[in-house]
Amino acid sequence: MSAEQRERESGAGGVDRRRFLVGSAAAAAVAAASSVLPGIGGTASAAARPNVLLIVTDDNPKQTNWAIQKTIAWLGGQGVTYNNGHVTTPLCAPSRSSIFSGRYAHNHGVRNNGASYSLDQSTTVQHHLKQAGYRTGLFGKYLNSWTLADNPPHFEEWALLQPGYVDAQWNVNGTVQTINGYTTNIVKNKTLAFLSKSTTDTRPWFAYVTPYASHEPNIPAAQYADTVVPTWNGRPSVPEADRSDKPAYVKNATNTLADGRAVRQRQLRALLSVDDAVQAFKDKLAALGQLNNTLVIYIGDNGFQWADHGLLGKGTPYSPAHEVPFYLSWPAGGLGSGTTDNRIVANIDIAPTILAAAGITATTPQDGKSLLSGFNRDHLLVEWWKQGTAGVKDSWASYVAKNRQYVEYYDLHTDASGRVSGTGQVTFREYYDLVNDPYQLTNELYQASPADEQNLGIPALAAQLAADRQS
């Protein structure tokens, strides 16, 4: 272990000195700029408040670095790489609602992709920013099941995408229309036009940029259709030789390494255009003189399994489904020097971070914490609900730490509005030692004795999970 690694890992809370100093610099920058605007307590002055560029990709696994090298060079090389980035619900609409609100799905109510209208729009970061005088724009996908003709609340300008890759339907500032072309490029161009308006509109701005990539069917742009991607030979969880200790939906899974390779190839090719767009955003900000004081965040709305445990997709408690790429850059806030941060961070931390950077105090509760602060959680709640009664996978919740993970499945399901029904009875449990078993091959609760459970600390984990689900 290097001296730098020892420094990062030292201390009872695991808070490394380098990250603490960076966070302190960011907090000091915010404090130095802060003043109070009418009706907005603790809002930074208009001249000092950062612009905010929030880039959210779709079904973007953590292991996609090859396809986003320009993004990493900018946001990792001139910002912060979060090595332990997660989403708290590995499903599109719940995760995006957590990004907007800083809340767990059990608090914001969007527990499935059909429940988008359950989100209280007054809790969103775009609401708070618009109220504080920000110019707000949305470019790309919004929330699953959102009616295209319905304008997205609290955005001043938008190009709302009906999910698709080529010649798709859009709602552009209230007009539903077909725009021919590749949608990632259209998202890029609409965003660039929005940024350019800052030459005549001096308000700080918030741009929510969300291409459809790398969601199925993962169609790449024409120039990348045949791009050769690096060979991938899987990982120990692809395929898992013995799944007898897993729940039934995993034991019955049939996807192979070849299936995982095919999805991976398509996803990487689709993300190449996202990477081009991010580079274009950087170039535009530099040309506008706004690169230094723009807070830029990049995150996937959930991960994706490449045949891990025989499964393709998301919505499971296994690491590839809820681990995501997560980058942040804000040079004016002290976050521009190319550091790594090993804290457990999540999508619920994005809204608190943006509001803290802008000096805005949220008027509604938030479960996440500002990444500009010195918080250091020891675990994270990750949760998912079954929609309807026909699915083969039960609802579940999980205690996720760096060194271990505990999972409970429940007899629960939701309706299209996100309302929960069922007995709540625990139907299956899993426990993984993530230090010695990072690929989650051995469920240590399978056939475990009461003494084994005590030795693993299961009673305390179960109690903490229950408390997290009620918090």
Automatic annotation (TrEMBL):
<dbReference type="InterPro" id="IPR006311">
    <property type="entry name" value="TAT_signal"/>
</dbReference>
<keyword id="KW-0812">Transmembrane</keyword>
<keyword id="KW-0472">Membrane</keyword>
<feature type="domain" description="Sulfatase N-terminal">
    <location>
        <begin position="50"/>
        <end position="360"/>
    </location>
</feature>
<protein>
    <submittedName>
        <fullName>Sulfatase</fullName>
    </submittedName>
</protein>
<feature type="transmembrane region" description="Helical">
    <location>
        <begin position="20"/>
        <end position="41"/>
    </location>
</feature>
<dbReference type="InterPro" id="IPR017850">
    <property type="entry name" value="Alkaline_phosphatase_core_sf"/>
</dbReference>
<dbReference type="InterPro" id="IPR000917">
    <property type="entry name" value="Sulfatase_N"/>
</dbReference>
<keyword id="KW-1133">Transmembrane helix</keyword>
<dbReference type="Pfam" id="PF00884">
    <property type="entry name" value="Sulfatase"/>
</dbReference>
